Amino acid sequence: MSRRVSPAEGxxxxxxxxxxxxxxxxxxxxxxxxxxxxEEADRFFVLLEGRVKLYTASPSGAENIMQVFGxxxxxxxxxxxxxxxxxxxxxxxxxxxxxxxxxxxxLEWLRATPDxxxxxxxxxxxxxxxxxxxxxxxxxxSPRARLCRYLLEAAAESGPVPDAGPLSFALPxxxxxxxxxxxxxxxxxxxxxxxxxxxxxxxxxxxxxxxxVAVFRQMAGR
Amino acid sequence: xxxxxxKCGASRPDAALAASMCRHFAEGMETVDFDDGAILVRLxxxxxxxxxxxxxxxxxxxxxxxxxxxxxxLGPGALLGLExxxxxxxxxxxxxxxxxxxxAMVPRQVFLDRIAADPEAGLLAFTVLGTRLRACIKSTDDxxxxxxxxxxxxxxxxxxxxxxxxxxxxxxGRLPFPKKTLAAHLGITQQSLSRVLHRLRDVGVVVRGxxxxxxxxxxxxxxxxxxxxx
Lengths: 222, 230
Hints:
By secondary structure, chain A is α+β, with helices and mostly antiparallel strands.
């Protein structure tokens, strides 16, 4: 299904606004593969609604989830501009509404408006630094510490996180996807949640309740 | 200091990219030679000059919880400070020379003027950042999907043998950085690294200090293929 996006839809990527305003909007159901690892990178995506995960897969099918994007994010641009193929697979994990931009259109826009290049470089630079942080965390932290770090980030998505005291928040991802994000097999995620139970943390029906959020900070080394 | 011609000393598969970077950004710039171990750029300092690596390699380090964690190696064509020059205005990592490094020093304003005047130069900068993002993805894959032995085997082969097919002839060389740094780079403890190197004796890997010899690269290459752990 396809229609035009209107400026009233609250899209907040001002930078890409002029480029995407005339582009058709596409709705896809959860589970739709938007592109696959190794496929020619000839388009990028702006996500208006829903969630999309980018991941690589091991030969046995285990997923390494690099990013989970939400409304207002864009993805596939670095691959489209700089690599011949997508280094990851993109899949909608919820019903999603997005705009698909093709290479020729973007290149024409960039050549016509070179003043936009520094802004895009700044966005990609920040994304690169976040990836460096994730990589460093992966090298330094134990799996449990990575889980606590992830939980702190998830809590911060839903509001301010105090230094100490009780806290409850909704998990943004199901357990198996959290495992793919932090490099734990699903059964080990369950085991780690049980272990957190002995530290005053309960996880039930996607809700996390911590008697003292300082536990996460201590475990994650923050 | 000398002026650099539009030519780079890259020898890896990304040589074409490095040559393009030199053509667009290095011409006419001053060059600086850095000694082994010298710091080319330091994390969180303002990006006033972007060193463009012409020859040699550097190790990038990201500070995490007060530890300088090695995150990736950078070779010819790497423009240091690219991640921050248009955004934060600060370097996003520290880069230390692994052996002698020659770099063309590109002033920030020169970089900005060139990408404003020439869209192809801007697209090239995207390409370099994209290549680094892809390297991050590969490193994360290695950490999540490969065991410590496979990671060490792959590192040794890449360091001593380059990216080509493993030969039948022995390979010999030096570790590019101390074992402590190597362990951190591979995401394992020093004890684990020692255990793995000890185990690799069985496939003909001999380590004496920083000197390393791979007697049968093809055997090590089989090990480096690795088995999926999941």
